[in-house]
């Protein structure tokens, strides 16, 4: 999914328990169920039936929760000449509010398990439990909270498509939905107070170092998110070193002048077994945890309600 551009020093995980009881109305258990529901559609590769059905389901679920839902639909022609039907789904809470926060995640899955340890699997599509389902699952559980208790600011939940289709070295046919959104913003002068990309967030062995592009181009947002996590008691999950520069959906948005940072557990499962499940058939629902969903959900809620 992502191409590492620069590696910084790794940090050891704190020895104490990373998790505690919920700090907000967010339900990690509900998020797990939403992740399972997506997995049941199978791989969500653009142009497939599973992709189409998942997009319909996500849009329907968001319409039941958000004040406004906008779908951006377009066709993308790949470098090989294939035509992909794509859609971004933008769920808006308090759409008339001037001050807004943008949350972003991707909902598609990779068409090939190119990093699978078994060469026979490398042409098969992945289920993408963490890399594809975890972000939308968190957004649906977050939408449950925002529907019951409107946030202090306007909140935009953006599910982008086509993030993981092509190749990241070089960047060809990837980050398609975020690039499209950056060129087709919901309104003239759209500039949220800050934004957060949530990607690969529910791994059982969860840890988020600060991502390099985020630190360089939106350091105040990194400070805001990491300090909020620390206040909630999650400072040993949102750690302060060990990050990298990662090519992800926040990059086109940063390039467009939006201060959007990346919260990503890129190592999956951890620095001792880096990327063991990334882009493999092993990225399955048993690798996720309701407790991990609870951590990111609590932080996401706190950022727009305190």
What does this structure look like?
With 306 residues, the chain is α/β, with parallel strands linked by helices. It is 31% helix and 19% strand. It contains eight helices and ten strands. The strands form three sheets. The chain has a six-stranded mixed β-sheet, with helices on both faces. A two-stranded antiparallel sheet has the order 1-9. A two-stranded antiparallel ribbon has the order 6-7. Helix 1 crosses helix 3 and helix 6 crosses helix 8. It starts with a strand and ends with a helix. The N terminus is likely disordered.
Mind sketching the topology for me?
Layout (H helix, E strand, L loop, with lengths): L3 E4 L20 H12 L9 H15 L4 E10 L5 E11 L6 E7 L22 H20 L5 E7 L6 E2 L2 E2 L3 H8 L10 E6 L12 H6 L1 H13 L12 E3 L3 H6 L4 E5 L25 H16 L1
Parallel strand pairs: 4-5, 4-8, 8-10
Antiparallel strand pairs: 1-9, 2-3, 3-5, 6-7
Helix pairs in contact: 1-3, 1-8, 3-8, 6-8
């Amino acid at each position: 999914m992502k191409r590492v551009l620069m590696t910084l020093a790794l940090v050891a995980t704190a020895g104490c328990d990373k998790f505690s009881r919920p700090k907000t109305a967010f339900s990690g258990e509900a998020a797990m169920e939403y992740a399972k529901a997506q997995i049941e559609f199978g791989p969500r590769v653009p142009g497939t039936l599973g992709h189409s059905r998942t997009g319909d389901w996500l849009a329907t679920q968001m319409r039941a929760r958000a004040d406004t839902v906008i779908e951006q639909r377009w066709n993308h022609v790949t470098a090989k000449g294939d035509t992909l039907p794509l859609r971004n789904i933008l769920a808006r809470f308090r759409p008339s509010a001037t001050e807004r926060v943008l949350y972003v995640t991707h909902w598609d899955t990779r068409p090939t398990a190119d990093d699978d340890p078994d060469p026979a699997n490398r042409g098969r599509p992945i289920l993408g439990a963490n890399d594809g389902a975890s972000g939308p699952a968190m957004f649906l559980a977050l939408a449950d909270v925002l529907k019951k208790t409107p946030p202090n600011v306007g909140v935009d939940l953006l599910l982008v498509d086509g993030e993981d289709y092509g190749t990241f070295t070089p960047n060809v046919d990837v980050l398609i939905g975020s690039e499209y959104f950056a060129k087709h913003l919901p309104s003239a002068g759209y500039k949220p107070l800050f934004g957060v990309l949530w990607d690969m967030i529910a791994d059982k062995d969860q840890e988020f170092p600060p991502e390099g592009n985020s630190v360089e181009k939106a350091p105040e947002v990194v400070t805001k998110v990491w300090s909020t996590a620390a206040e909630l008691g999650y400072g040993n999950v949102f750690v302060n070193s060990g990050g990298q520069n990662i090519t992800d959906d926040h990059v086109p948005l940063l390039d467009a002048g939006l201060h959007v940072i990346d919260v990503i557990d890129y190592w999956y499962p951890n620095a001792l077994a880096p990327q063991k499940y990334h882009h493999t058939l092993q990225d399955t629902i048993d690798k996720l945890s309701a407790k991990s969903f609870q951590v990111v959900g609590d932080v996401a809620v706190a950022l727009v309600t305190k």
